[in-house]
Amino acid sequence: MTLTSFGPANRIQRSAETHPLTWRLRDDGEAVWLDEYQAKNGYAAARKAFSDMAQDDIVQTVKDSGLKGRGGAGFPTGVKWGLMPKDESINIRYLLCNADEMEPNTWKDRMLMEQLPHLLIEGMLISARALKTYRGYIFLRGEYTTAAKHLNRAVEEAKAAGLLGKNILGSGFDFELFVHTGAGRYICGEETALINSLEGRRANPRSKPPFPAAVGVWGKPTCVNNVETLCNVPAIIADGVDWYKSLARDGSEDMGTKLMGFSGKVKNPGLWELPFGVTGRELFEDYAGGMRDGYKLKCWQPGGAGTGFLLPEHLDAQMYAGGIAKVGTRMGTGLAMAVDDSVNMVSLLRNMEQFFARESCGFCTPCRDGLPWSVKLLMAIEKGEGQPGDIETLLGLVGFLGPGKTFCAHAPGAVEPLGSAIKYFRPEFEAGIAPTSAVVPPLAKPIVVGA
Predict the structure, then answer these.
(1) What are the structural domain ranges in the chain?
(2) Signal sequence: where (predicted)?
(3) What is the full DSSP assignment across 156-187?
């Protein structure tokens, strides 16, 4: 599939056949309301799901499509849906949309909610039908005030049209949908912290198991999906599994399309719907236009602040989870950031780790104490006051806070860019070590309890 870049003077040519998420977008950037959405085949998939498909068939179709979560974790959506209990006596179930988009350098969900609110509602309606959930919540980042306004208006439009509420489309199925604005915490992107916050509790992640599919909101079975994930559901139901799989490039293990972007000092920063499997180089050169005049690409992050840095030679990696894993990091949200050659990596990492340290829920010791410790060391190195052994201590913290060492994935994501920055740009860190005869021992290796 060949796509062209879009900017103010050269709009991308979108169609329903190639751009299931964005083909309905208006050129003026205004929201697509109910009448226009339905004129563009909106809610046709919902009508098909309600009239022609059994609930289990919807789940199986999504599973067969290969749709994976678009929030960063990439868990198969159909498999997640299949974890919901089959017991028909459990008549209270919840569907939550994770719209707490607080990952730095990520704004894809915001665009969908502000400009295509009915696409999200239709995706949730079909999902609710499949999962037998009678109530849904869109847990929205509090700062997204325009998205909140547009979603609330779209919900009212759908209610008035009989697409939400009681006896939807004459099926006997009831589904209520509410927009809930959060108080503004990064940790609410973790699904169980989101559930705690929705219940009015402190936004701490919960111990798993039990998983939300068994014990979620108010102790009831709950499914949590990302905005972009849910927005893929209508096209899959309307046009089928084979078509959806055909959208991805050869070699990609992920199916369909993905909202990808590039920010930083590039000529054409933006957001595009592209097939999984495009290369980072296509995204950077053909869509973002490369670096602005006078700047050189130093490194880049493929999918938000919680992903590791890559070098320019890694641009040929394919943009899908496995493709990015081959060069040592994660796909994340798919919105990349270019770092130019004027940026000092120590200062950049100090800024990042300050954010992650502030956003820690404080529940577990490695995250609560380890992230501020990294900030303290980075501040000293940034001022040229670092001590011998500080870099080794930072690398020790990367190990202490890595996957499986903390209660949730917040800390591993926070230290991944730190570890990669030291790996590729260690001389910049060494330049901040003050000359001294005293040698500070590096952080000891992690102690294994019971070893």
Answers:
(1) 34-245, 247-340, 345-430
(2) none
(3) HHHHHTTSSBSSGGGSS--BEEEEEE----GG
User: What would be the CATH architecture of the domain defined by 34-245?
Assistant: 3-Layer(aba) Sandwich (3.40)
Do 247-340 and 345-430 come out as alike in CATH topology? no
| Total-model pTM | 0.91
Q: Which residues, 6+ apart, have CB-to-CB distance to 102 below 8 Å?
A: 141, 184, 185, 186, 188, 189, 359
List the structure tokens of 15: 């169609």
Distance between CA 157 and CA 161 in Å, rounded?
A: 6
SS3 282: helix
Place of tokens 């869509």: 287
Per-residue pLDDT tens for 257-306? Answer: 999 999 999 999 999 999 999 999 999 999 999 999 999 999 999 999 99
Say if residue 417 is preceded by a cis peptide, omega within 30 of 0. no
Bond from prior residue into 85 cis (ω within 30 degrees of 0): no
User: Do 304 and 108 contact (CB within 8 A), yes or no?
Assistant: no
Q: For the beta carbon of residue 240, count every other beta carbon within 10 angstroms.
A: 14
Tokens of 275: 């097939």
The residue assigned the tokens 């005869």 is: 437
For residue 221, the SS3 value is coil
CA 274-249-335 angle, 5° bins: 35
**Class of domain 345-430 (CATH, top level):** mainly alpha
How far is Cα 169 from Cα 205, in angstroms, rounded to an integer? 37
CATH 3.10.20.600 given to domain 247-340: yes
